[in-house]
Every structure is written in C-alpha cells, then in structure tokens.
Design goal:
GO terms for molecular function: ubiquitin protein ligase binding. This is Cullin-4A. Helices cover about 65% and strands about 0% of the residues. It has five helices and no strands. Helix 2 runs antiparallel to helix 3 and helix 2 packs parallel to helix 4. It is globular, with a radius of gyration of 14 Å.
C-alpha cells in the first residue's frame, strides 16, 4: 500500500501532464501505421497503460485528450483497428465513456 501511495503521489506532482502524456501515448499506439504490435500485444500494452492511468488524478484531462484524438482517428480513417478502439473504450478507467457508441 505504501508503494502505491508513493507512486500516486509521484505521478501527480505535475498536475495534469501525466494524464495528457498517457492520452498521447495511447493515441500513438492506436493510430494506423503503428504496425509494431499484434492485436494481442496491443491489448496487453493497453492493459498496462490503464494500470498507470488509474494512479493519475487527471482523469478528466485524459478523457478530453483521448476523445479529441479518437475523433481525429475515426474522422480521417487513421485508426489502426476498430477492435482496439472498442477494447480501449471498454476498459474500466474510472469514469463513464459517453462515446462508446462512436465506434
């Protein structure tokens, strides 16, 4: 418990920046052209990202950046995988996703 508390304290030192950076990292992994990982590897990576995300206090900031990036990916056809998008949206990240039906 002490280690988790210390990590949570550490990751939130820069207010909203960690949430923004996590959202941008997710965007880079979900963009078309990111052929580094198989679907299974991408799923494992998203799970790991969500573990990190749960420590962040800037969930609203993450949501704002994620939704903006999701809209861009979908509108310009740059999403690597609809299944990966749905998987990311379905992850339990501590708030309601109002855009689940977007994909």
């Amino acid at each position: 418990d002490l280690l988790k508390e210390a990590f949570e304290f550490f990751i939130n030192q820069r207010a909203n920046k960690p949430a923004e950076l996590i959202a941008k990292f997710v965007d880079s992994k979900l963009r078309a052209g990111n052929k580094e990982a198989t679907e299974e590897e991408l799923e494992r990576l998203l799970d790991k990202i969500m573990v990190l995300f749960r420590f962040s206090h800037g969930k609203d900031v993450f949501e704002a950046f994620y939704k903006k990036d999701l809209a861009k990916r979908l509108l310009v056809g740059k999403s690597a995988s609809v299944d990966a998008e749905k998987s990311m949206l379905s992850k339990k990240v501590g708030f309601n996703w109002s855009c689940l039906s977007c994909v």
